[in-house]
Amino acid sequence: MAEPAAAPTGIDPRSGFCAATRTFHSVRSSSADALPPESLPITAAAYAFSLLASPLPDRPALVDAATGIAVSYPFIIASVRSLAGGLWSSLGLRPGDVALVVAPSRLEVPVLHFALMSIGAVVSPANPASTPEEYAHQVALSRPVVAFAAPEVADKLPAHVSCVVLGSDAYESLSSAGAEAAPPPVAVKQSDTAAVLYSSGTTGRVKAVAITHRNLIALMCTHAENRKRAAAEATDAGKEPPPPAVTLLPLPLFHVFGFMMVLRSVSMGDTAVLMERFDFGAVLRAIERYRVTLLPAAPPVLVAMIKSEEARRHDLSSLLVIAVGGAPLGREVAERFAAVFPSVQIVQGYGLTESSGAVAGTVRPEESMKYGSAGKLGSRLQAKIVDPTTGEALGPGQRGELWIRGPLVMKGYVGDDKATAETVDSQGWLKTGDLCYFNEDGFLYIVDRLKELIKYKGYQVPPAELEHILQSHPGIADAAVIGYPDEDAGQLPMAFIVRQPGSNLTRQQVIDYVAKHVAPYKKVRRVAFVNAIPKSPAGKILRRELVQQALSMGASKL
């Protein structure tokens, strides 16, 4: 989408709010010449490698958490170049061709992503746990010319899509062929699509989100600026600059969070430790084994670390930062985590697939102390808080739908012009669908998804608020809240509870606990105990599944 014009004068330096335009502007400083001009032909892969120091970093670029196998920076760059040559000469891939990538988080996957983007082909990573029906829907949207799949999932893909099995002789031969025939230089526009990511589908069927090279370059540029700023501030304070990060990625690489974290790690010259799937015990062991310093995680992981005895049996002293995303983090959970792990800084952030990842975040320890906030608006971004009913743009402290604009906003939804027009207006404003507000200091607070607000007798009840309260109970391991259909009230707040092992918590105790913390209209009125809360790969609660589950239970079981 088009990038906004220069910010007008009259902006409040604290909140970033301009009263004349009713627009919030980023208060983060950014270098005017750090982001390459839009007219410059360059791929996201080329830009990522251009940020690396010379000589190349002598630390591993990628590590497999399960086996300990490591890939160096010289090796990954050589592998990307030779594979790119094979993709061009042997498979005949050209700029704009879409390649579906369906595999767990293995070492060859980031190499394949970079190789595809380097020749202007479009990466389209998909969940290896999807069903054949789901793959058919994704293929109908993105129309890939080829698929790269792990052996265990190849048979689930539509038969008409040409498939190369990762690890097969056919796949290995691509690198061999490419070593002898490098692809010719290609002029790829930054406005061209680099990746098609599939939205999580928490409120409907998945959509195919087109992310441009410009989107990814802007994201990496911001991370690089943040790293330089942190180093300068440390030097000014007479301290050592932050060391290169060792980032554990229990996140799937087909989701925007994991996809962007790999880009960030490689472009910054850090080390990324990949895990094929999330397993809490394996996460703890990997932190200890690889001396992990940075862990991206959803809020339930913090809750588990607080309440788990297993976490206390591992040496987690290397861990410096937890980057929280995927769902709002409640003040109660953040404060309890800080009490148990005082040396670990919580970095909170907010983003969505349609914004290529992070829109807001905290970058300093004092900002991270603003518990409950998603941080400040990222550099080069603008935002509005819009009343969903009147369309009026609101000021600091007022709640409304968050709209954002800037170089991170997606190109659109592939194959769905109607949804694109409904989500991004003609001026480039992306309507996030999230109920939010900025405070007087420019910190963003996420109240809830607008579509997930529970309507109880005309009142609006945010499920996330009740979930934060429930997760603070020592007898509750996990919780989710939905609106249960009711003829008289419209919807009743209903809680799904996962008890802590050994807990005998009752429905009434759950109801009474929440009632002590909220106004009467927000009280939980129905409770169901379950073994697990259904969630997306990024940790978002799949409320539609819970609604269906509640309806199938029947009133007598609630």
Automatic annotation (TrEMBL):
EC number in record: 6.2.1.12
Enzyme class, broadest EC rank? ligase
Question: Which chemical reaction does it catalyze?
Answer: (E)-4-coumarate + ATP + CoA = (E)-4-coumaroyl-CoA + AMP + diphosphate; (E)-4-coumarate + ATP + H(+) = (E)-4-coumaroyl-AMP + diphosphate; (E)-4-coumaroyl-AMP + CoA = (E)-4-coumaroyl-CoA + AMP + H(+)
Q: Which cofactor does it need?
A: Mg(2+)
Q: Mind telling me which InterPro entries this protein's record contains?
A: AMP-bd_C (IPR025110), AMP-bd_C_sf (IPR045851), AMP-binding_CS (IPR020845), AMP-dep_synth/lig_dom (IPR000873), ANL_N_sf (IPR042099)
Q: Name one Pfam family in it.
A: AMP-binding
Report the CDD domains cross-referenced here. Answer: 4CL
Identify the residues that the record assigns to the AMP-dependent synthetase/ligase domain, covering every copy.
57-413
Domain AMP-binding enzyme C-terminal, by residue range, is 465-540
Q: Which family does it belong to?
A: Belongs to the ATP-dependent AMP-binding enzyme family.
Protein name, entry field = 4-coumarate--CoA ligase
Question: What organism is the protein native to?
Answer: Triticum aestivum
